[in-house]
Each structure stands twice: as structure tokens, then as C-alpha cells.
Amino acid sequence: MGTMSVSVPDDLRDRMNQLDEVNWSAVARKAFEAKVKEIDILKKISSKSSLSDKDVKEISRKINEKMAKKFRSI
Asked: In terms of Cα–Cα distance, which of 50, 8, 52 is closest to 17?
């Protein structure tokens, strides 16, 4: 198994060190695995897409506008 070094802010490291019962390597491994799976799924979906970059940007703009409007009304 490979080894990685991850940098975290000092205050977070201090708080993590207070939690002896947590296996931080396992937590990081699971988070890395979940992110890789998420990206693999997105790549698979996008590889089948016939949308142009312009189409994607327009859809993204519309989603952002509607989400902003939704959260402003809360």
C-alpha cells in the first residue's frame, strides 16, 4: 500500500490529535475513495454527452441563478 502525506492547518491537527479513537488514515482513505468514484461517474456521464462547452456553461449559469434565487427567498 502506498503512503501519502496530507497537510492540515495546525488548529485542525490539534483538534484531531484530541480524538484518539478515530483512525484518521481510514477516514482519509474513505474520503479519497468516495471522491475518486464521484469523479469516475462524472467522467463516464460526460463522455456520453453531446453538449458543447457553450451549452454546459449556459445550463450551469441557469442552475446557479435559480439556486441563488431559491436561497435568497429562504
From this structure: 8
Using only C-alpha atoms, the chain has a radius of gyration, in whole angstroms, of 19
Q: What is the DSSP letter of 7?
A: -
| Cα–Cα dist 36/48, whole Å | 19
How far apart are alpha carbons 22 and 1 in whole angstroms? Answer: 20
Residues 6+ apart with CB under 8 A from 24: 16
Mean pLDDT within 65-71: 90
C-alpha 21/C-alpha 8 separation (Å) is: 19
Distance CA 31, CA 27 (A): 6
Residues 42-53: what's their mean pLDDT? 86
